[in-house]
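Quick one, tokens below:
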């Protein structure tokens, strides 16, 4: 029987995926284990293999298009099978031909209006499912026709979308993908005039492109073409994929968590000399970021309430200290995580960091390597930045912004205890904290501890 391939969820916080490349085309034979397609998760590009033998019967999502996770993107089956029939069966919650009926299809469906508002208590609705019911004005009685696939039988938004109940709800007839809407808007195409080939008649980008290519539409567009006033445009790119994920998550962090900032200047003279002595030893190459990770780890051990996050109204304080390092890759910002730094020596942290950073820049990290962080460091010192502010990486409660080391004139004490001016290598560090979890005094104590460790670096490795 035909199998509907969905956009996989490969990251803990991933809500949508971008179809990067199809490695098979419609009509191609597929063997289990073959590379089927590549998708952008919330941080990196991941290859996805076929889970069965068969033929690629239909492709529903074009390359470059981003869709929510678990959205059908293709149909794989045996030669001669009807892909549209399999999609229709899935859309109305029926079993495909040849499939054993499940328990739900043997049940008698509830009658129209048999469930009032009180009947909703019998269902577990996810937040997105609740919003979908409100937006589309779905009657509670329709939930009797929906099979829940969520936790403990809970109903998700996807369950409602695939159940077919939206056909009678207040839903626009010309449902379309985000990329299809964008292309239609750019070319002045009325989506009501486009026939969709996606699941349940959804309009895909390829449908709009075919409409644009039709002779009558092409002539109309040529007759009404114009050059908009304004600055010349170098290029345009859709706000999708990794860039949109980064923007959405950081916007949510900044506007949800009240940020509080604390800045300190650190004399890095001893730390620079300490690192130089370590790197003179054979097979011991340590970057400044490695010393920062170990120093932050020791500071978090002393002040564990900063190593925390907020989950569904519960403050979770972690024993594991998993420190993320913000790295600028080819496709955007990614934060690989060094796990359990409280248990690792500096040399082990240095070797892991080198490996993670190299693969972060090449986009070959797996989700487990950029998730599970409890604290993050954003280091722009190598770019000569004197001072900057970092946005907390959710769901963490704090992030440290590290700037460049610069020689500055500072006031010190001479051998007689009198004020004197000296030129010292100074570095600015700024701590951003979620004020819901972390008070100002705790943040100040943590930053003072970190400053002391960096100015007396032998304590970092003891």
């Amino acid at each position: 029987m035909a199998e509907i391939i969905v956009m996989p969820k490969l990251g803990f916080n991933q809500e949508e995926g971008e179809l990067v490349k199809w490695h098979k085309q419609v009509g191609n034979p597929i063997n289990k284990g073959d590379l089927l397609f590549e998708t952008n998760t919330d941080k990196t590009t991941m290859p996805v293999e076929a889970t069965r033998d068969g033929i690629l019967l239909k492709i529903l999502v074009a390359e470059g298009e981003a869709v929510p996770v678990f959205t059908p993107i293709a149909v794989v089956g045996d030669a001669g099978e009807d892909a549209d029939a399999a999609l229709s069966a899935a859309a109305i919650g029926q079993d495909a031909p040849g499939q054993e009926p499940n328990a739900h299809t043997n049940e008698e469906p509830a009658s129209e209006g048999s469930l009032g508002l009180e009947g909703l208590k019998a269902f577990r609705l996810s937040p997105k499912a609740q919003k979908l019911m409100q937006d589309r004005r779905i009657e509670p009685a329709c939930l009797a026709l929906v099979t829940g696939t969520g936790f403990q039988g809970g109903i998700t938004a996807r369950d409602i979308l695939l159940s077919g109940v939206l056909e009678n709800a207040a839903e626009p007839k010309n449902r379309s993908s985000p990329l299809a809407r964008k292309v239609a808007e750019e070319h002045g195409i009325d989506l009501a005039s486009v026939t969709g080939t996606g699941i349940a008649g959804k309009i895909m980008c390829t449908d709009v492109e075919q409409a644009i290519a039709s002779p009558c539409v092409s002539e109309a567009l040529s007759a009404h073409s114009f050059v908009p006033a304004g600055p010349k445009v170098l290029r345009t790119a859709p706000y999708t994929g990794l860039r949109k994920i980064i923007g959405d998550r950081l916007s949510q962090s900044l506007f949800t968590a009240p940020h509080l900032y604390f800045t300190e200047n650190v004399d890095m003279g001893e730390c620079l000399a300490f690192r130089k002595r370590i790197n003179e030893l054979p097979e011991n190459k340590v970057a400044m970021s490695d010393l920062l990770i170990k120093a932050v780890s020791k500071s978090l051990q002393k002040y564990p309430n900063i190593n925390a996050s907020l989950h569904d109204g519960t403050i979770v304080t972690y024993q594991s200290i998993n420190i993320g390092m913000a790295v600028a890759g080819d496709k955007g910002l990614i934060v690989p995580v060094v796990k359990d730094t409280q248990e690792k020596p500096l040399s082990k942290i240095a070797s892991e960091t080198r490996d993670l950073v190299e693969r972060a820049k090449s986009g070959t990290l797996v989700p487990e390597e950029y998730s599970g962080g409890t604290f993050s460091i954003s280091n722009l010192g190598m770019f000569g930045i004197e001072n900057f502010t970092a946005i907390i990486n959710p769901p963490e409660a704090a992030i440290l912004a590290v700037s460049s080391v610069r020689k500055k004139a500072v006031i010190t004490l001479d051998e007689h205890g009198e004020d004197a001016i000296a030129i010292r290598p100074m570095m600015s560090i700024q701590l951003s904290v979620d004020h819901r979890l972390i008070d100002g005094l705790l943040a100040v104590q943590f930053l003072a501890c970190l400053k002391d460790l960096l100015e007396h670096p032998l304590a970092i490795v003891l």
